[in-house]
Amino acid sequence: MLWLSRRPEWQRSREFETTIRSGSTSTSSTFGSPADQEWDEAEREWEAYNAHFERGYSHHGQDGEDDTDPIEKPKTRIVFQPTYDTTHTIFFRGHWLRVRRSRKHDTNSEMISISVIARSNNILKQLVLQAKKEYEAECVHRIQIYFADAHGSWRWTDSRAKRPLSSIVLNPGVKEMLVDDAKDFLRSEKWYADRGIPFRRGYLLYGVPGSGKSSLIHALAGYLQLDIYVVSLSASWISDSTLTSLMGRVPARCVVLLEDLDAAFTRSVSRDDEEEILGSSNNNNNNGNNGGNNNNAEGPQEQQSGFSSFYGSGRRRGGRSGRSGEYLSDVNTLSLSGLLNALDGVAASEGRLLFATTNHLDKLDEALRRPGRMDVWIEFKNASKWQAEALFRNFFPACDEDEVEDVDSDGALSAGELEARRRDAREAQKRREREVDEALKNIKVESRMFTPNPPVPTTGVPSSPSTSSVWSIASSASNLLSSASSLSLPFGSSSGSSTPSVSPASSTSASRKTSSASSSIASAAAAVSSSRPHVKKFGEGNTAYIAPPPTDDIASRRHSAAPLDKKTLAVLAKKFADGVPEEEFSVAGLQGYLLKHKSNPHLAASNIESWVASERALRVKLAQEKAAREEREKQLREKRRQELLLKREEKKKQEEKEAEMEKIKAKLAEKEKEEELEKMRQKLREKEEEARKKEREEREGKSGDSAEEKKEEEKVEEKKEEHKTEEEKKSDSDDDEDKENWSDALP
Ligand SMILES: Nc1ncnc2c1ncn2[C@@H]1O[C@H](COP(=O)(O)OP(=O)(O)OP(=O)(O)O)[C@@H](O)[C@H]1O
């Protein structure tokens, strides 16, 4: 893409899309392609033309707009790219190439297809090689950052200027060891191959937040000229398969960064889940404090750091269990075996430097900790005094001067040197005061006066100057002194005169001299002191009221510190480090503090103790608030738990009652059935009875008619009886005959 963006044909495309990038010209986060430069040129021409055009109509300079804008304006770059799905023709080394940008719909990733009509594909190979060369040349100064996306692919997110390793303040030897180890690894591919050892190296950076883990990785990647591929293991979409495909797709030489190693597999469901509430009643103390070891002194200074926060990726989205006690999505289905497989399975790519960061080493599974997966472990602690001093020295520039010879053994300037400096400062101060007095004397007194409230300028009407008007004049004069003196005094706050506080009482002498001064005082005084190019300020043209002095708070927020001489720097750095307690505050915390005093190293050094005290007080307050919050939450949970238990109890009772009722109903139904049956039986019996009765009656009704028949029947019966007895007799006589026959036959 870089190569394409440099083709003139690409830039001349008639169908193009535009978008914008922001950034200052010096720190543009994108490649400064010729297309960009051409566009800048066009923009400049257009602006010049417009300015010329407008001059014809406007009264130039009428409202005093200042042309000298010392601040470089942030630049909005217009990015200009040929559209998708259109074929563009580019001429390259005697061949016409057809180039087409398109988007893959499934992964939404961009694809560029280049075709050429030629006898061999050499021309395409040459093109790719040249593109690679140009890309690499560009990468010398920047590192490319890729983030894993939910489709299991790497998405280019940004390119960043390299961070010098020297800007990372770590205990002596740590950086050197890491650099040597990484360099050695990258050189020893053959060594690994000869021994059949997978060519991979893992580094585990663990320790308190804001101690420089991510910064070190960034700086190291820049030093080794490697791109960074970041995966946040707490992302909701991470699963075994996506991680495996991601790890299989990293290029051979790069830095792979696994963020939040401790947050992997820490999935939770919603806090409102009943089971969780009931189950957690016994370990309430862990709630909302899931490893958020807050006695690491981060307190209010804790910063969201790491790559994901830089680049706005998915990290900490949905919470980071380790720190915030919030909840990770329950869609994250990464398993330990999936992670191990992705790290050193067959599909895992080789040649990469794997960095994993965690704030909670104790939460890591033993399998992950096993050497071979994470070969080098580096612990990051809160800032030591040594680091604090180095940080201060890094932060404030030192001008090239004579070496620090007369800084005595404990780092302080010798008494003589100090006295000489104070004397110089006092003299410089007096000189300025004299100059201002001179200026005030020369001021032409006009008849116009300052008026008290209401602030309506009453030109030409004399009135006695009020306290407030005197104060404003005097303070502007003193302000002038203060700004002048702050430039010359080496010990701003210790001398007590670098930011003199102006009050009506303290400014009486000045006010007497200027009781009838006009508004021209301000400009006259400013003319005395200012040697810088004049920049017209808002309200400077006021003639009735002079601006009040900036408050101390505003005054201390100026943004540039004059370079310190080495001796002063040594003293201030020592003073600063003396005030920082050993390993109590993170480097990020100290950096935040120094940023607040960016323009005033003296104040930064002298205020450190009060900052430490206020941070501690704040931390105690936060801890108390946290404890109170936790207690409240605990009570709330306990209440909810009781309510839930009660509800469950009631529900159970209700269910039992219902079951009882059901039983009774069933019994009743059975009884009813029985009764019904009985009734039916009864009815049946009655019916039978009735039927019999009827039969009997019928029979009785017929009895007269059948008397003869009865007799006949009786006769038949008698005959039958007779016949039967005869037969019996006969059989008896037969038996007797047989017996006789037998007895004859026997001897
Ligand atoms: N040792 C250090 N040297 C220089 N700067 C540091 C150091 N530690 C922290 N910082 C500064 O503090 C900020 C946060 O640092 P960084 O993100 O590297 O911390 P971290 O240890 O990765 O934190 P986390 O664990 O929260 O990701 C950065 O702006 C960095 O410049």
Description of the structure:
It is found in: Mitochondrion inner membrane. The strands form three sheets. This protein has a seven-stranded mixed beta sheet. Strands 3-4-5 form a three-stranded antiparallel beta sheet. It has a two-stranded antiparallel ribbon with strand order 1-2. Strand 6 and strand 7 form a beta hairpin. Helix 5 crosses helix 7, helix 14 packs antiparallel against helix 21 and helix 16 runs parallel beside helix 19. The protein is elongated and about 175 Å long. Helix content is about 50%, strand content about 10%. It is α/β, with parallel strands linked by helices and about 750 residues long. Among the domains are: about 90 residues, no CATH class; about 180 residues, 3-Layer(aba) Sandwich (Rossmann fold), CATH 3.40.50.300; about 100 residues, no CATH class. About 25% of the residues have low confidence. Bound molecules: adenosine-5'-triphosphate.
Using brief descriptors, characterize the structure shown.
747 residues, binds adenosine-5'-triphosphate, single chain, 12 strands, alpha/beta, seven-stranded mixed beta sheet, three-stranded antiparallel beta sheet, Rossmann fold
List bound small molecules: adenosine-5'-triphosphate
Write down the Rg: 49 Å
Any idea of the CATH class of one domain?
A: Alpha Beta
Give start-end ranges of low-pLDDT stretches. Answer: 21-32, 58-70, 267-272, 281-305, 310-330, 401-413, 443-533
The average pLDDT score comes to 70
Strand line-up of the largest beta sheet: 7-6-9-10-11-8-12
Write the CATH architecture name of one domain.
Answer: 3-Layer(aba) Sandwich
Distance N terminus to C terminus?
Answer: 143 Å
Query: What is the multimeric organization of the chains shown?
Result: single chain
Q: What's the shape?
A: elongated
Question: What is the tally of beta strands?
Answer: 12
- Major sheet attributes: 7 strands, mixed
